Amino acid sequence: MTDFSSLLVADRGQSARSIHLVDKASFDDWAKGRPPEDRALIAAHRFDAKSDFAFVILPRGADFEVVSAVKNAAELSPWCLAKLAESLAEGTYKVAVGEPGRAALGWLLGQHRFDAFRSKKDQPERGARVLLTGDAAKIDESVRLAEATALVRDLVNTPAADLGPAELEAAVRDEAKRFGAQVRVVAGEALTKGYPLIAAVGAAATDARAPRLIELEWGKDGDPRIAIVGKGVCFDSGGLDLKPAAGMRLMKKDMGGAAHALALARLIMAEKLPVRLHLLIPAVENAVSDEAYRPGDIIKSRKGLFIEIDNTDAEGRLILADALTKAVEDGAELIMDFATLTGAARIALGPDLPALFVSEDELAGAIESCARGVVDPLWRMPLWEPYDEMLKSDIADAANAASSPMAGCITAAMFLKKFVPDGTPWAHLDTYAWRDAAKSGRPKGGDALGVRAFFAALQQRFGNG
Ligand code: BES
Ligand code: ZN
Ligand code: ZN
User: Fold this and answer.
1) Which atom of ligand 1 is nearest to the CA of 342?
2) Which ligand 1 atom sits nearest the alpha carbon of residue 236?
3) What global pTM score does this model have?
4) 9-31, pLDDT tens digit by residue?
5) Given its phi and psi angles, is residue 353 left (phi above 0), alpha (psi -120 to 50 degrees) or beta?
6) Is 309 touching ligand 1 by the criterion CB < 6 Å?
7) Contact 227, 334 (CB under 8 A)
8) 101, 211, 324, 390: least surrounded by Cβ within 10 Å?
9) d(Cα 41, Cα 56) in Å, to the nearest integer?
């Protein structure tokens, strides 16, 4: 893991190259005050501060400064420094005016690479690019957010062969060790008895990749109990309702919800939020074998509801259902879950906007405003009761897939809702956990979408200050 804490350090007057951040509105005034050599270079590059992330090097004797275009110089986006952090020479930098603030995140993540599977590491000869900040108190926060994001990216990018349920369990144990949390893992016979849906979905996997429920508990007894649940499908082949090749290609990322949940848990523990945290990760491989669960099977869930399997590819909601039931049994006062649950959420909102479903308007409003505040976008969708009808089964209490493909992310959320009692505040995020195209500071591949927004909402609700 990249050592982010060495890349963002307190400004004690160390010598550093200045980064001038200008936007369309401030550019002309800024340019007027520059020496003629600067103006000549800016003109030579036709730099006008209009195209995002463009930058020009301004020589200063044997050294240099930088001017870079940003959308809004008064309110820096988290990503406006990322391209600089990726592109500039090693050394120490600082923003010329003001503080990097939340843009420190992009500076850090711009220097993170997933190169576990490259024989030649990415440009090892290029040293670190260090950013100074006068906001020493905020360094830890930026470093933690970068670490949490990198954790999600690395877990999601790791191929399924190298990250099965056992490795996901190891990742949870690592976090528990770091923060003195307790871990409990339910597997084998106990899983079959106690968590029939999780056991059914994972039944086709080999013993080495056996299904399990991974639980982590942390915090003081009297504090409010919050449950965080993440879909941990380490590979989703679709099961007997096998996915076609194109639909299966990215399904190593189907544990993205678990990675999001683990990252959020890490942020909560690192910040020492005064909550009693219960992390639940049902971890399975949705595989194909003679032991696989079948379309038409009826399984009695942990809650007691009989579920008819209409489609073995709608596996995420099944494993989440049993995990949600356990969270409720243990007295969760607030439940959050993350899942790469439906293709339909992507059809509706595209890859960059996770679909948010919330049982209460107040909690929804808090998450939405925090998402805007930390620039971690998401979009609320309705828990539309009338569509519950689409989940009817002819002979069981409910089917796991809807009779119509329409509103697929809503019917999936309605299925989960059956396992959360009315009155328990609950937020469900149907996230893509992936970027199809690179953006500054966000390479193509696994990514965290929604973790920072949810964390900000938790800080607002439970934080000390
Ligand atoms: N893991 C997939 C959902 C998914 C697919 C997320 C592509 C992101 C990108 C999930 O398990 C699934 O296959 N869902 C089905 C549900 C259907 C069978 C009711 C879907 O969305 O097609
Ligand atoms: Zn599936
Ligand atoms: Zn899935």
Assistant:
1) 21
2) 1
3) 0.98
4) 999 999 999 999 999 999 999 99
5) beta
6) no
7) yes
8) 101
9) 8
Gap between the Cα atoms of 313 and 171, Å rounded: 26
The dihedral sign for the CA sequence 8, 2, 214, 242 = positive
Catalytic residue among 83, 302, 317, 461: 317
DSSP single-letter state for residue 4? G
- Tell me how far CA of residue 121 lies from CA of 7, 114, 126, 150, 155, in angstroms: 19, 9, 11, 17, 18
C-alpha pair distances (Å), 406 with each of 343, 344, 387, 411, 412: 11, 8, 10, 9, 11
Which atom of ligand 1 is closest in space to residue 344's alpha carbon? 21
Rounded Cα distance, 168 and 237, in Å: 18
Nearest Cα neighbor of 49 from 71, 66, 65, 29 is: 71
Residue 3 one-letter amino acid: D
Q: What are phi and psi of 141, to 5 degrees?
A: -60, -45
82 conformational bin, left if phi > 0, alpha if psi -120 to 50, beta if neither: alpha
Burial of 189 (0-12, 13-18, 19+ CB in 10 A): exposed
Q: What is the pLDDT of residues 35-74, one digit of tens each?
A: 999 999 999 999 999 887 899 999 999 999 999 999 999 9
Distance CA 233, CA 257 (A): 9
Q: Which of 34, 243, 380, 435 is catalytic?
A: 243
The answer for residues whose C-beta is within 8 angstroms of residue 217's C-beta and 6 or more apart is 181, 182, 184, 276, 277, 278, 279
Residue with tokens 């009779």: 403
Taking residue 398's Cβ as centre, other Cβ atoms within 10 Å add up to 18
**Pick from 248, 310, 237, 316: nearest CA to 283:** 316
Pairing mode, if any, of strands 434-435 and 445-446? antiparallel
- CA atoms of 127 and 29, how far apart (whole Å): 34
- Ligand 1 centroid vs 410 CA: distance in angstroms? 13
